[in-house]
């Protein structure tokens, strides 16, 4: 199965940044990189990038590459924005498909949306439709996901963190694996249990919640 991961925009794309200066592409490429590494742990998968760290690849070039490759799936990764400048309270996660609502794209988008909401706890802005180039001009199943708002101060702070980026990548990959019934290459590395320390119950619950949000299984034992 051939999959395209598309980190939207580029380092030098004008205007695509938080009010305090983080480029959207920094977040997009980080999530794409993490997702690629996770997807490569599944059988019969080949993962390609539509973007480049050297230049902002034009949209037509991205979709032509995917079409010529005869890819099966195209996931475009973004961070959202609202308004013309400064911070505001608009926030949450939304996933887009083409207005004709292709069934497989809809199913994949719904899975991505659900997994991202579960992983991040942000507002569910639902699956929506849009006439975006990467959704219109691709010949395969295509979705575009917005992983939070750069113009929301709290969400922008999350977008900067490795933990949040990993959460988003894990959620996207989990959805793709579920949609296409992907099987892992192996059981993976050996698992170890670590007792962190002793806590009061309330502190232990908070730490367990933080660990789970970062992709770890946490169990509290009294």
Summarize the structure.
The protein is 40% helix and 17% strand. With 222 residues, the protein is α/β, with parallel strands linked by helices.
Summing up helix and strand content along with how strands pair, one would put the structural category as alpha/beta
Under CATH, the homologous superfamily of the largest domain reads Zn-dependent exopeptidases
- Quaternary structure state of the chains depicted: single chain
Query: What are the segments in which pLDDT stays under 50 over at least 5 consecutive residues?
Result: none
Helical segment count: 7
Basic shape: globular
CATH class of the largest domain: Alpha Beta
- Work out the count of structural domains: 2
Textual characterization of the structure:
There is one protein chain. Helices cover 40% and strands 17% of the residues. With 222 residues, it is α/β, with parallel strands linked by helices. The termini are far apart. The chain has helices spanning 24-39, 59-69, 103-120, 133-136, 153-159, 162-180, 201-213; strands at residues 2-7, 46-49, 73-80, 93-97, 124-129, 141-149. It folds into two domains: 2-180, Zn-dependent exopeptidases (Aminopeptidase); 190-222, no CATH class. It has a six-stranded mixed β-sheet with strand order 2-1-3-6-4-5, with helices on both faces. Strand 4 (93-97), helix 3 and strand 5 (124-129) form a beta-alpha-beta unit. The mean pLDDT is 92. Helix 3 packs antiparallel against helix 6. The longest helix is centred in the last third of the chain and has 19 residues, at 162-180. It has seven helices and six strands; from the N terminus they run βαβαββαβαβααα.
